[in-house]
Amino acid sequence: MKLVSPGVATRETSADIRRRRLARLTCAAIAGGWALTLLSAAVQGGTITRNAALLAAVGAASGLLWALRDWIVERDRSLQVVLAAASLQACAAAVAFDRGVVAAWTFALLLAAVAGVVGASRALVAGQAALLAAGQLAAAFLAPGRAAGAHETAVVVAVAVLLVAAASRALVELREESARRREVAGDVLRLHERLAASVAADPARFALLTMDLSGAGPAEVRAIGERIAAQLRGEDLVARPAADHLAIVADTDASGAAALARRIVEATARYLRDEVGQLNAAIGIAVYPDDGRTPDELLARAGAKLEDVRAAADGHRVRPLTTH
Fold it and tell me: What's the pLDDT score for residue 278?
């Protein structure tokens, strides 16, 4: 969903683009997995029945059709559902093809690698990998007509699926952490440069809003920041000076800053409720020159007001977004 007021133009965020890219990767893995299964069975000299070939064609077609969906309007959990369905398809491929030959293992390993990339958390990646591994074991131990050695092979494939998914997730986390550190460092610099330039210009007023999203993951913080930026004027700034913080510099006075904070609260609350559930969050506001005449003074004042909001909140339960 687009968290904007009526009449405000919207744009695709990096989170939207990332979801579409990952969805297409998953769908390509589905279509490619079925193709690799057919090719592997043919190379190994296995008998490809008409029903097995039809199953592969339908499975590949489903991947292509899922890729045509408008993934910009889909939620992240929809992608997890597609990956779970693909895990069941990999199980079906093992049942249909892995009788006298082992042809569907490439499908399972391909999906395991994709699961490590698509999963929003380690728990989700582990769950997807466990589903894949269980499917391969079920195909070997429960399906009729298994070839000799099918059980041992299925155990090896299941272990390999878990290892591939874990390794894929580890590589993703390393890349994300490196990118996150570069992004935060860059935003800290941008924020200080913008505050210094604004103070040097000595305008009649401008406001600094600091927003704490405790408990939100990097993707949620980034997505919320981009949705806030879509509602601001071109000269205003949204920066991410810490992993779970956002900072907004806006050309407005105290009343305008309070109104902006309310709009941010309403938009973010809808996003949190619909996408990730409520989280602890708060906004502190400092206005130049009343709350400070230097960047450090403004940052300290906004931070102090944010801490006042935190101190006033009930620490034993999650509360709605507030401002101060």
Answer: 57
Question: Cβ(224)–Cβ(246) under 8 Å?
Answer: yes
How far apart, in whole angstroms, are the C-alpha atoms of residue 39 and residue 37?
5
**How many secondary structure helices (H) and strands (E) does the chain include?**
9, 5
Quick check: 136 and 164 in contact, CB under 8 A? Answer: no
Query: Which residue's structure tokens are 């490809």?
Result: 48
The pLDDT tens digits for 50-94 are: 999 999 999 999 999 999 988 877 777 888 899 999 999 999 998
Q: How far apart are CA 203 and CA 8, in angstroms?
A: 27
82 neighbors 27 (Cβ within 8 angstroms): yes
Q: CA–CA separation, 246 vs 231, rounded Å?
A: 15
Give the Cα-Cα-Cα angle 275, 279, 282 (nearest 5 degrees): 120
N residues, the chain: 324
DSSP state of 12: -
The answer to whether 238 and 312 have CB atoms below 8 angstroms apart is no
Q: Which of 287, 272, 279 is nearest to 319 (CA)?
A: 279
235 backbone dihedrals φ, ψ, rounded to 5°: -85, -10
* Calpha distance 43→208 (Å, rounded): 65
Alpha-carbon distance of 319 to 277, in angstroms, equals: 11
- Measured CA to CA, the distance from residue 41 to residue 31 in angstroms comes to 16
What is the pTM assigned to this prediction? Answer: 0.64
Q: Which amino acid is at 139?
A: A
